[in-house]
Design goal:
Blueprint lengths: L4 H46 L4 H10 L7 E9 L12 H20 L2 E8 L2 E10 L2 E2 L2 H16 L4 E5 L3 E2 L4 H6 L1
Antiparallel strand pairs: 1-3, 1-5, 1-6, 2-3, 3-4
Helix pairs in contact: 3-4
Length: 181
């Protein structure tokens, strides 16, 4: 039996509709997975900064994100304007934009570079605990920070984006002290 032209057209339309639905489901599933990963990273960073949990368990969770206990890391913070603690919790338009879109953008950028990191919003800045290697290659932190600031400022159309960096540290014990200095 040879299909008619109308039958073939209906089949193609249904196949295209089905394929489109499958693609939409896949995109939603990927967004959901990315959201879960971002929440896991932010939750781990919160626990590290609050000093909650056992060091061995936190080290294991950090290793899950690629930062092994013997690997050096640094904090990198991004903020709009001066990197100073604020007395009020109100954010300016650009700072609110960084809060709303920055973590997703930074995570995608760092993932594309195969960086090992956890990140999350802390007070009025985006905090990133980043391993000092991308893949097996050490990173030039100053160059990396400049590139990240340029990428985020350009993508979000934000002026006055600043980065601050901590000293290098190893393990989970110095997280709180490193972040606050």
């Amino acid at each position: 039996m040879v299909p008619t032209r109308e039958g073939a057209t209906v089949f193609v339309e249904r196949a295209m509709t089905f394929a489109r639905a499958l693609l939409e489901i896949q995109v939603l599933a990927e967004r959901s997975a990315i959201g879960r990963l971002q929440r896991a990273r932010a939750s781990l960073l919160d626990e590290l900064l609050l000093g909650h949990g056992e060091a061995s368990e936190l080290s294991e969770r950090l290793a899950h994100h690629g930062i092994v206990g013997v690997e050096p890391w640094r904090f990198l913070v991004l903020a709009v304007g001066p990197l100073l603690p604020r007395a009020d919790s109100a954010l300016s338009g650009p700072a609110q934009l960084l809060r709303d879109k920055g973590a997703e953008l930074v995570d995608a950028y760092l993932d594309s570079l195969n960086a090992h990191f956890v990140s999350g919003w802390e007070s009025d800045c985006l905090a990133i605990l980043i391993g000092m290697k991308m893949g097996d290659q050490p990173i030039d932190v100053d160059e990396f920070a400049r590139g990240l600031v340029q990428q985020v400022a350009h993508s979000l159309h934000v002026r006055g984006l600043r980065a601050g960096m901590s000293e290098t540290a190893v393990g989970v014990e110095p997280v709180v002290e490193t972040y606050t200095h």
